[in-house]
Amino acid sequence: MNREVFIKKLFEDHKWLKQVLLMLFFAGLTFCFLIKSPLHIWKNGEVGTDSSVFMTVAMMMDKGYMPYRDTFDHKGPLIYLIDYVGRKIAVYRGVWVFEFLFLLITVCYLYKTARILCGRKIACLVIVVQMALLTGYFKGGNLVEEYALPVISVALFIFMDYFVNRRIGRFRLFICGLCFGCVCLLRINMIAVWIVCCIVVLAQCIKWKKWKELGEYIFFFVLGLMTVGMPIIIWLGVTRSLQPFWEQYIEFNMLYSSRNPQNRMASLLQFVNQPVIVLSLVTSIYLIRTKEKLINGICLANMIVTLFFISISGAGYEHYCMILIPTITLPMSALFNVCREIFPERQGRFIQFLLIAYFVAGTVVPAWGPLISDSVRGFYERNGSTKSSGVENICRIIEENTNADTSISVYGNSDIFYVLTGRPHATRYSYQFPIGIVMPEIKNRYFVQLKEQLPKVIIVQPSYYDDPMEQFLYDNDYTLIWAEDESRPEEGWQVYKHGD
């Protein structure tokens, strides 16, 4: 038996081998992609602004404090629990384990969804393109959108497999409800796929008078939702954190989302301004006019509702676009089939080849080239630190002037110092901007609590040194002990110490 025949027979007789190789391929992609995370096991970098807030809340939880009640933030409680468990694995970089697992689940289920409409090779290409697109949205990771990706992807697969192949079961209904609960406990405006698909399922059941099936669908869906939701709600209630949770997660976010209505259209256009997104929209619009109107209508509606939700605040943050990635899976998968269907066979194959070449040259290579290069560099430099000298200097000064239980305060929005030094924040507000702009009374409460606590050290972030902080430091005997720029201290990082 020659080598080619042996390999062919091996793959034909052992389908599990294909699955193992495919999983290893996806795991390799995930590991390589996550070199973009400062928490990667080969890196020791600085986490981003939002990530440091979540890690700070987790650190405070580790010290016996509660989210919302003792430390202000307006994301869902699931992100803090993820970071808390990650902290138990490793104080600073343990959460990377969850980043890896969650992204791997996302990739696997996006692949399963793509396979509904296309073959294995095209599905793999779709995944590689989607991950290339994700590089521009990742922004350091450990964000609610990142952890929402797997549950959105799982739910999308369950819904699409139902609509295309009519496959459904009690366990899938339960998982779909569980995923819905997880997204609601991360950030509630990421539920587009459930809004669109549940409405379609409800309409179908009413139209076909499937009352028994509808009752079963609702029961097991709600059971999944309650399984993840009730323990967390009870936990918040028992710890007297339920009312602060409502005020910060619901009321504050409603205020936050309504503050820039004039920027919503600009944000929408910014999010759509990506060739892959445009192609997916155009493909869905074309297909809805030709065939499979229901499936393609759902895909189009899912993209539109998702775009609406991520644009509603008018903030325009690129990481909001992470949840667009699952919405383009089916349109991209269908795009290659369309070329073969609307053109003669030879021309269709040529157009398909041009599309593949376009995606590879225009999206895959520009994104994956640096990822692979950074992964190789990360391996050889894996024992070093990539934190800035300014951050390391400030951490050293904090540790020299405080102990592990001494509270400090950072004025601005840079919670990384709480994370790296393990010092608790002195007031309820670990950061004050932009929340103090959205709700000005927060800034007033901060200074009242700061006066009561008088933390040993206050760090002022560049560009946040203002009149209220200057007056507070002067009135309460704080001394400047370190400045990034001694000639113009108010323009760089500043560290102040209380008393002697």
Report on this model:
The termini are far apart. 39% of the residues are buried. The chain is mainly α. The model has no long low-confidence stretch (mean pLDDT 92). Helix 8 runs parallel beside helix 10 (211-238). It has a four-stranded mixed β-sheet, sandwiched between helices. It has helices spanning 3-13, 15-33, 49-62, 77-89, 96-114, 120-134, 144-165, 170-184, 192-207, 211-238, 242-257, 264-272, 275-290, 293-311, 329-342, 345-380, 389-401, 416-421, 435-438, 440-453, 467-475, and strands at residues 408-411, 457-460, 478-483, 494-498.
Care to give the gist of this entry?
By secondary structure, the protein is mainly alpha-helical. The protein contains 21 helices and four strands. Strands 1-2-4-3 form a four-stranded mixed β-sheet, with helices on both faces.
Q: Main traits of this protein?
A:
500 residues, 66% helix, 4-stranded mixed beta sheet, mainly alpha, globular
Q: Strand arrangement, largest sheet? A: 1-2-4-3
Provide the low-confidence segments as ranges: none
Q: What is the radius of gyration computed over CA atoms, rounded to a whole number of angstroms?
A: 25 Å
Major sheet: 4 strands, mixed
Proportion of residues in β-strands: under 5%
**Cα shape:** globular
In whole angstroms, how far apart are the ends?
A: 84 Å
Please tell me the overall pLDDT: 92
Helix content: 55-70%
Number of helices: 21
The count of DSSP E runs of length 2 or more, i.e. the number of strands, is 4
Q: SSE order in H/E notation?
A: HHHHHHHHHHHHHHHHHEHHHEHEE
